Amino acid sequence: MTQAHEPHLHRPPHAGTRPPRLTEVPAFGAMIAEGWGSDIVEARVPDGVAEAAAAHRARLAERVGDRTVVLGAGRAPVRSNDTSYDFRADSDFVWLTGCQVEDGVLVLHGADAVLYLPPPARPGDPAFFSDAMHGELWVGASPGLAEWERALGVPVRPLAELDGALAHGSGWWAGRAVPADVVTRHGLEPSAELARACSDLRMVKDAWEVAQLRAAVDHTVTGFEAVAREIPTAVSSGGERWLQGTFDRHARTTGNGPGYASIVGSGPHAPTLHWVRCDGPVLPDAALLLDMGVETDTLYTADVTRTVPPSGRFSPEQRAVHDLVEKSHRAGMAHVRPGVHYLDFHFAAMEVLAQGLHDWGLLSVSVDEALSPQGQQHRRWLVCGIGHHLGLDVHDCAHSDWQDYMGADLEPGVVMTVEPGLYFHAHDLTVPPELRGVGVRLEDDLLVTETGHEVLSDALPIDAAGIEAWTARLLPTSAAV
């Protein structure tokens, strides 16, 4: 027998030495800078973006007068080590520019606006090959400054010129996403008043914004349908995360992605208000709470919740909770119309829930005492609010003062949610065993109109029988009861 011998391994040249940094090798730099054809792409923005942003700038300029304001797009936060989360531009910046370029800065004085953006790292720029986060060799071709100027209808300058533009300013207001070093270097004033102004102005949506929200809601409705079809797979093997992933894939396909972390809570997880871990099973006989919204490419988001029976039928206990939440939901929506105080919907919905809980024997005090500011005992099973403004942020206009947000009357163009619920945790010993682990929420997106309101999400049923029929229709025949 011939003994096998290991083949001789040739040691590569320069083995054992430190590989050179390519930015320090002139020959490589010269080689990679040459021989590239044109790969310039246009800036793609949806129809109406530039016109809407210009109108928004005019409204802000009227609000702040002669003030010069500086707003930033922000930068993606680090996820771990040398990787970052996906970039999502600051909402005020997007509202005023229609642009979603990382590190962008807008300088606005009256009707005069200049947008400062980092130019793409193209061939000839060392960052083309050395910057894994922004170099076009790594991330692909990007629109240049001229392309953005054509698309947005506003002067666009290199970000490197920003310091010169700010050098002679004083008392200028800075938005939340302006880099801290820029604020410090130029003595800008971080301005809560600027955040409030943008927040106040964004409360009433214009026609273009309403169209964006309609699209977000429509895509969300089809996303709910996609999720319902996957319930059997989630029950058999995939669990809550399978349904979360189903909706998130749909949102990424039809828009920018989910507008917030999608909530999928089955059984004992349903009462947990922000159950975004979604690491549990989907129980076939337990109520399944789905709180999800598609964010459009223009970054306007929907926010819709339904509680569905995976089997196609609610249990009697689940049905009773759902019926009470539905009654509260309808009472709240009835108070959404022009001239009505914003909080009226909240109090109307709460009164229904408190009365129902009292009728079930869960309240040890009267309904009036529970509803009083000194009571609130019914809130044990509903610690959150039951509605909010909706727009570029899922909880929109959050920087307005209380009196401007909750103390004002509703007017046409406001888009808001109504979302009452009841949440009986599995370890809550104050409720009967049959209610423990039952969580139900109904949430719709409403547009205040001249004569009342429009439920943008009314393609989804809200009554228990309608939800059972909707669920059973989408389940495979073998899966429905």
Automatic annotation (TrEMBL):
InterPro entries according to UniProt: Aminopep_P_N, Creatin/AminoP/Spt16_N, Creatinase/aminopeptidase-like, Pept_M24, X-Pro_dipept-like
Top-level taxonomic group: Bacteria
Keyword DNA repair on entry: no
Domain (Aminopeptidase P N-terminal): residue spans on this chain: 51-183
Catalytic activity: Release of any N-terminal amino acid, including proline, that is linked to proline, even from a dipeptide or tripeptide
SUPFAM superfamilies: Creatinase/aminopeptidase, Creatinase/prolidase N-terminal domain
Pfam families: AMP_N (PF05195), Peptidase_M24 (PF00557)
Protein name: Xaa-Pro aminopeptidase
Phylogenetic classification of the source organism: Bacteria, Bacillati, Actinomycetota, Actinomycetes, Micrococcales
